[in-house]
Amino acid sequence: VIRTHCLVYSCTFVVFNLVLSCDHFCEIVLVEGSRVFESWKNPPPPVFMEFFFFNITNAEDCLNGAKPKVTQIGPYTYREYRYKDNVTMVENGTMVSAYTMKKFVFLREKSVGDPAVDNITTVNIPSWAVMEKMKDSWFRTMVSMFMKTLGSGPFTSRTVHELLWGYEDPLLEKAAGYTPGLDKAFGLMYKKNGSDSGEFIYHTGEQNYLDYGRVKTWKGQSKLTFWTSEESNRIQGSDGSSFHPLLKKDERIYIFTPDLCRTIYMDFEKEVEVKGIPAYRFTPPRSVFASKEENSDNEGFCVSKKECLGTGVLKVSPCRKGAPVVASFPHFYLAEDKYVDAIEGMSPDREHHQTYLDLNPTTGVILRASKRAQVNILMNRVGGFPDTKNLNETVFPVMFLNESVVIDDESAAKVKKLLLISDLVSNFALFIVGLGGIMLLILVVLLFRAHQKKPSAQDDTSYCPVGDKGREDPQNGTYIGLTEKVDA
Asked: Is-contact 355 285, C-beta < 8 A?
């Protein structure tokens, strides 16, 4: 019985220490000293950014009303280094402030060509921005003539490097002389190499694990001002770099994306496995970019009643200095057929154009992700600009990007270890019940055996001779002694 009690105590002590170890290991809060804080500031898995451009092959015919024909060229791949800078605990340690820095380094071995050499013919975004700005002005004809003298037409040919990282545009250079603060250069990723997207303040998750990584403010604002409704201007969820643990299949995860100037959401799609680790795949449904007729919550994303596009596209000009920039998924994936049919060369495909996140449901760790988005320009007839008189309204694709990451082997090993400990602890109650049953069975067996060995009252004592004399005495009275009977 003493051994049984010692065994129970020993096993309980081991499991108790296991629980303490797991509690220490499972610290998922954004505070100094926690196990996730350093990896949150400096994510170890490598991130790759791929750029694909659409080269128009019939620009002149397009200006005369023909359907645009494009060919996809890419990828031009860059290694993306991202880290949190100027990390500061705020509001008595319940929040953390940080800037996400990004740097890009070109990877020739993962690219189709040299971005400094390869030329792309595409829409002239600075020209379209000026035309959009001047479309209701009384001196737009003068601007049109001025653009003609500078050679700033609806289309342009530039190298990939210029289109991405910037070039001095003659039209912007002239306009900057009349518009203080206007930049002379333009690029799709202009000033984004080695920069940040503004200050974020995050919840640490210490008070509620569901708040882990949730954005409280961006650039000092708790809501946006770009759109026309409270719902559309709401900042929700994380910034896409971290998610709370204990995810469920029926929950909707929200991600605030400064590039889109809005919050998007993702729903559970299916269970997957990444490097032997189970994961839930979340992906944006069609309703994210649905028209106001399909999803009434999206009515606030209409710039105006006249500028409300259909399903699958989002005009983001309010946060792009008025430029007619339209966002979508690559090749107009999940968009209305009219956008796909308007451009020859579009072939939407779920495998190559879907945005998704593979998250481990227990820890919330990102195991694999692919963020895919396409930049388009809204082209149509603009009064006072003769080059556009034969154009039909078209959402013209410029380029799309694929920002991807897969967990590295070292981080995967840590997640597996964490999940192993988590499984042991989750079965703690069953282990204790089973252990208790075994101990009870052992106790019953020991008690039963002890009861069998106990002598009866009749056999406790007996008369026996103390010597040979007792056996020889016929009276057997003098030499009889009372002694304990010894068991044979």
From this structure: no
HEC-encoded secondary structure of the chain: CHHHHHHHHHHHHHHHHHHHHHHHHCCCCCCCCCCCHHHHHCCCCCEEEEEEEEEECCHHHHHCCCCCEEEEEEEEEEEEEEEEEEEEEECCCCEEEEEEEEEEEECHHHCCCCCCCCEEEEECHHHHHHHHHHCCCCCHHHHHHHHHHHCCCCEEEEEHHHHHHCEECHHHHHHHCCCCCCCCEECCCCCCCCEEEEEEEEECCCCCHHHCCCEEEECCECECCCCCCCCCCECCCECCCCCCCCCCCCCCEEEEECCCCEEEEEEEEEEEEECCEEEEEEECCHHHHCCCCCCHHHHHHCCCHHHCCCCCEEECHHHCCCCCEEEECHHHCCCCHHHHHCCECCCCCHHHHCCEEEECCCCCCEEEEEEEEEEEEEECCCCCCHHHCCCCCEEEEEEEEEEEEECCHHHHHHHHHHHHHHHHHHCHHHHHHHHHHHHHHHHHHHHHHHHHHCCCCCCCCEEEECCHHHHHCCCCCCCEEEECCCCC
Identify the pLDDT of residue 426.
59
Q: How many residues does the chain have?
A: 488
Residue-wise pLDDT tens digits, 2-21: 343 443 334 333 333 434 33
**pLDDT for position 10:** 41
Round to whole Å and give the CA distance between 219 and 231: 19
- Which parts of the chain register pLDDT below 70? 1-27, 425-431, 454-488
CA distance 436 to 289: 57
Torsion of CA 419, 420, 423, 428, to 10 degrees: -130
Residue 420 is predicted with a pLDDT of: 87
| pTM exceeds 0.85, yes or no | no
Geometric angle at alpha carbon 264, from 259 and 268, rounded to 5°: 135
Domain boundaries, the chain: 45-407, 462-488
Give the C-alpha separation, 49 to 107, whole Å.
10
